[in-house]
Amino acid sequence: MLDLDRLKSIGLLRDLSDQMLKKMGEKAKIVNVKAGTYIFREGDEAEKLYSVLEGKVTLEVSLNTSTDVKIQDIVPSRSFGISSLVDTDVKHCVSHARTLVDSKLLVWKAADLEDLFQSDHKLGYLVTKKIGKVLKDRLQGTYAQAAAEM
User: Fold this and answer.
1) What is the pTM of this model?
2) Which of 8, 81, 110, 133 is deepest in the core (most CB within 10 A)?
3) What are the residues facing 38 on neighbouring strands?
4) Residue 18 to residues 2, 107, 119, Cα–Cα distance (Å)
């Protein structure tokens, strides 16, 4: 079982009760990833949600076969792989995720989380509410980046 304080440090989980955090912790796995590793690529099947415990991950999208554009760097306490939970039909990654330095990630299988959210609706609501904020913030950041490059 993961330490509750470590789970509370993750933005998506910050509003959860200790009981809810325990449920989330039971479903999670810690993975160490070397710098430069692609965790997933744009178009891959989206099957997992990730949170950075240590290190840094960059999210990028491909403009064409030779040009990737950074969306955002994900630092400790932040999450990515959100497509695994928000897409209702076929779930695909909408970006690449690559470690910039050796990183320690917390990983959940999306199917496990969906089952958990079905059994505990309040937990599902609270996490989904945070996911909406993350998506809004990333979209605003992308708009600001695009405007600055014009």
Assistant:
1) 0.90
2) 81
3) 98
4) 12, 19, 17
